[in-house]
Design goal:
alpha+beta, 4 strands, 3 helices
Length: about 100
Amino acid sequence: MNANVAIQVLPQVATDQEVVRIVDEVIAYIKSTGVTYYVGPCETAMEGDYEELMEIVKQCQYIAIRSGCPSVMSYIKVTYKPEGGVLTIDEKTAKHHS
């Protein structure tokens, strides 16, 4: 594992219910990829191979559009270390959730 990515997808739709529905579809896609992920209240964090994570980020945009929003904004945070591992989600957060 050489990367962590956090993504916040913000569908540009009229209601909070539509935002939640579309974000849920994006999260379902992330879950289906098999990468390790953590859903937070404002973003979803993923860990794995950099190239795979970047493809997932790209697909998240397409899924939001196919789910019915005319445009989508996403905020992405990336930790990438090509020669060696990065801290895992668990290493970063476990002490705060016990």
